[in-house]
Q: What sequence folds into this?
């Protein structure tokens, strides 16, 4: 029954070579020796290179940890290590896991330097899953702090803009308070722009740049010192 299951699980090109084997174990050994990549030095080298080159980069801590775990599983498949007793096997597994903790910490981004130092400063280096949990917790904390910082910065920018507008308004008012008309003794305009002396100009002529007025400059004086026929508004008596 087992032999039939093996034959049905193998592609015809391979199963045909096992048709005359009489035991299931013999079929398994023949296929393992021919097609298994276990103990393949080239495969082990390729996986080791990928592990050494693995960096967190733009990946989350979980994505980075899962990438390494997948590579370690492949390495365990290709690199078969047998211990002589269960005690040696336990020591070997602990050593391999500690080595993988170091691999994981090496590839983390620089922002985790502080928590990395704390982990390495422990008397006994935690197990791999515990280290991953610690780094994930730090990642969540940093994400929350960044979000809060961004919100506060936006609020400060908005408040700063409001304050700047208010200050500009105060400066504008201050500058205009310093301007004085010697005719009507009031602020925010000069004698040359005094409405009581020259009349009120059309609104479209207000605020001309560089202090210049148009050809219809209101309040312009002729050679006799009197206002010209182009002056705007009625001339006040006296």
A:
């Amino acid at each position: 029954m087992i032999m039939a299951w093996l034959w049905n699980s193998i592609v015809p090109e391979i199963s045909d070579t096992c048709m005359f084997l009489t035991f299931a174990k013999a079929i398994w050994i023949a296929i393992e020796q021919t097609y298994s990549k276990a103990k393949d030095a080239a495969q082990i080298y390729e996986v080791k290179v990928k592990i050494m080159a693995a960096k967190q980069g733009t990946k989350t801590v979980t994505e980075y940890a899962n990438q390494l775990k997948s590579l370690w599983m492949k390495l365990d498949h290709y690199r078969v290590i047998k211990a002589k007793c269960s005690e040696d096997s336990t020591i070997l597994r602990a050593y391999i896991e500690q080595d993988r903790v170091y691999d994981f910490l090496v590839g983390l981004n620089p922002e985790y330097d502080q928590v990395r130092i704390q982990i390495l400063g422990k008397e006994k280096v935690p197990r791999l899953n515990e280290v991953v949990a610690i780094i994930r917790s730090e990642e969540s904390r940093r994400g929350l702090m960044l979000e809060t910082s961004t919100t506060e910065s936006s609020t400060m920018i908005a408040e700063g803009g409001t304050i700047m507008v208010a200050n500009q308004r105060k400066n504008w008012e201050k500058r205009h308070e310093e301007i004085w008309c010697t005719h009507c003794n009031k602020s925010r305009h000069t004698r040359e722009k005094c409405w009581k002396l020259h009349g009120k100009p059309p609104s479209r002529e207000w605020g001309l740049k560089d202090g210049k007025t148009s050809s219809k400059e209101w309040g312009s004086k002729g050679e006799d010192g009197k206002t010209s026929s182009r002056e705007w508004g009625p001339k006040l008596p006296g």
User: Anything to note?
Assistant: The chain has a mean pLDDT of 76. The radius of gyration is 44 Å.
